[in-house]
Amino acid sequence: PLALGLYTVNAVYGDTITMPCRLEVPDGLMFGKWKYEMPNGSPVFIAFRSSTKKNVQYDDVPDYKDRLSLSENYTLSIKNARISDEKRFVCMLVTEDDVSEEPTIVKVFKQPSQPEILHQADFLETEKLQMLGECVTRDSYPEGNVTWYKNGRVLQPVEEVVVINLQKIVDKSTGLFTMTSSLQYVPTKEDANAKFSCIVTYYGPSGQKTIQSKPVVFDVHYPTEKVTIQVLSQSSTVKEGDNITLKCSGNGNPPPQEFLFYIPGEAEGIRSSDTYIMTDVRRNATGEYKCALTDKSMMDSTTITVHYLDLQLTPSGEVTKQIGEALPVSCTISSSRNATVFWIKDNTRMQTSPSFSSLQYQDAGNYICETTLQEVEGLKKRKTLKLIVEGKPQIKMTKKTNTNKMSKTIVCHVEGFPKPAVQWTVTGSGSIINKAKETKYVNGKFSSKIVIAPEENVTLTCIAENQLERTVTSLNVSAISIPEYDEPEDRNDDNSEKVNDQAKLIVGIVVGLLLAALVAGVVYWLYVKKSKTASKHVDKDLGNIEENKKLEENNHKSET
């Protein structure tokens, strides 16, 4: 490299400076010397080497003591380069007839330390010019320049908005520069997450270079511009018995720590932190909720609906009624929204609501009226009705001769609740028959059956008894030698229907015959009446004939 037409050696601070003597060694060389020039131009000799004796001598110069080395080709090396080594050095080769000189310029460079942002502001306030910090970089040579950046873009000075001051201080002992750049800045709300950094630009042996500081993010304070109220709940809906947590927040930094909460039924605001908790809420908690800053400058509101579900079952619990009685049943629902209602009887869902105009035994059971609000998780109500249908024992007895003609089956058909106890006796002897077989007790009905082979006519008595009454019915049974057939009561339901149909047919025939007889009677009466009238006319005519005969006889007597 050439500086002002002169050969230049660029050295790094602390490294070794190597300066070759750029002269050709002449014939008859006696010795070579190196010197440097003072600012006023006067020379200072620092090294000598004889060409004949091959010995090297270094001058007593304090700045270069123990730092110099002169090689056989007259190359001068200076250890531990310093800023003070930036001089004009001259290589001299001397013969008897001539002195040759070749100058070399030495330039020393020192890379600065990585810049740091010191004295950082604890926080920044919007709309206020304040010191953000100082970017400091040390031990640079030559001096460098400092530039501020925000989010990777250069911060240009703007009057009363961006104010930058650069200060450079040189260490007199080392000649190195320390550069300090301060930044005054008016932040905005958008600077809350901005990254500020600084870069030092310096020159090295190979040209211009830069070093960047670590970015810094500042806490930017700005006032609240909006208040927001939230309902914190485990589900999207609120029901009676839930806990409600209201949270109020402001979008300022730092956020407000206290608020005024306004709840339904309270005229004055309740001062609290950013949360307000209500436990075990009831339906009267439904309404508009508000929160405001303590100075009431900003407010927000929300509406909370506390869902409820009431169920009233009438009657409920255990109810005992008599067979044939009426029992009105009502399941009344009161809710915050339309509720779904359904009935369950003995673990089976019913298609319609129960209604009893005349209770039967099969109506007894466990009834559940259940309702839910499908839109509200966990809101369900149910009530139960245990219906007991009681009845005094009712007995019907049937008999038939079995197909083998060797025995007869006598059945006592019993209805009643609680289940009656059945006992058989033989009238006359009063002996108890213990070989009866009972069918399954279903819907208040069952049968008790005995099989006998009587040698003579007997009377059997069926006794059915429960807590309500004792019922006794007797049936005459002929000896086994006299066949007896099923009575209508012993037939099944299909046969009963057939019998009923036949009975209806017989009744219809009888009614028809009666009507026909009535019509015939009326016709006969009309006929008889007409016949009597005709007889009267005949009698009258006959009377007239008799009278004529008598007149003729009288006339004949007169003539005689």
Automatic annotation (TrEMBL):
<dbReference type="InterPro" id="IPR013783">
    <property type="entry name" value="Ig-like_fold"/>
</dbReference>
<dbReference type="GO" id="GO:0030424">
    <property type="term" value="C:axon"/>
</dbReference>
<keyword id="KW-0393">Immunoglobulin domain</keyword>
<dbReference type="Pfam" id="PF13895">
    <property type="entry name" value="Ig_2"/>
</dbReference>
<keyword id="KW-1003">Cell membrane</keyword>
<dbReference type="InterPro" id="IPR036179">
    <property type="entry name" value="Ig-like_dom_sf"/>
</dbReference>
<dbReference type="InterPro" id="IPR013106">
    <property type="entry name" value="Ig_V-set"/>
</dbReference>
<keyword id="KW-1133">Transmembrane helix</keyword>
<dbReference type="InterPro" id="IPR007110">
    <property type="entry name" value="Ig-like_dom"/>
</dbReference>
<dbReference type="GO" id="GO:0007155">
    <property type="term" value="P:cell adhesion"/>
</dbReference>
<dbReference type="Pfam" id="PF13927">
    <property type="entry name" value="Ig_3"/>
</dbReference>
<feature type="domain" description="Ig-like">
    <location>
        <begin position="324"/>
        <end position="386"/>
    </location>
</feature>
<keyword id="KW-0966">Cell projection</keyword>
<keyword id="KW-0812">Transmembrane</keyword>
<dbReference type="InterPro" id="IPR051116">
    <property type="entry name" value="Surface_Rcpt/Adhesion_Mol"/>
</dbReference>
<keyword id="KW-0472">Membrane</keyword>
<feature type="domain" description="Ig-like">
    <location>
        <begin position="103"/>
        <end position="212"/>
    </location>
</feature>
<dbReference type="Pfam" id="PF08205">
    <property type="entry name" value="C2-set_2"/>
</dbReference>
<keyword id="KW-1064">Adaptive immunity</keyword>
<dbReference type="GO" id="GO:0002250">
    <property type="term" value="P:adaptive immune response"/>
</dbReference>
<keyword id="KW-0130">Cell adhesion</keyword>
<feature type="domain" description="Ig-like">
    <location>
        <begin position="223"/>
        <end position="305"/>
    </location>
</feature>
<dbReference type="GO" id="GO:0030425">
    <property type="term" value="C:dendrite"/>
</dbReference>
<keyword id="KW-0391">Immunity</keyword>
<dbReference type="InterPro" id="IPR003599">
    <property type="entry name" value="Ig_sub"/>
</dbReference>
<dbReference type="InterPro" id="IPR013162">
    <property type="entry name" value="CD80_C2-set"/>
</dbReference>
<feature type="transmembrane region" description="Helical">
    <location>
        <begin position="505"/>
        <end position="527"/>
    </location>
</feature>
<keyword id="KW-0677">Repeat</keyword>
<keyword id="KW-0325">Glycoprotein</keyword>
<keyword id="KW-1015">Disulfide bond</keyword>
<dbReference type="GO" id="GO:0005886">
    <property type="term" value="C:plasma membrane"/>
</dbReference>
<protein>
    <recommendedName>
        <fullName>CD166 antigen</fullName>
    </recommendedName>
</protein>
<feature type="domain" description="Ig-like">
    <location>
        <begin position="393"/>
        <end position="473"/>
    </location>
</feature>
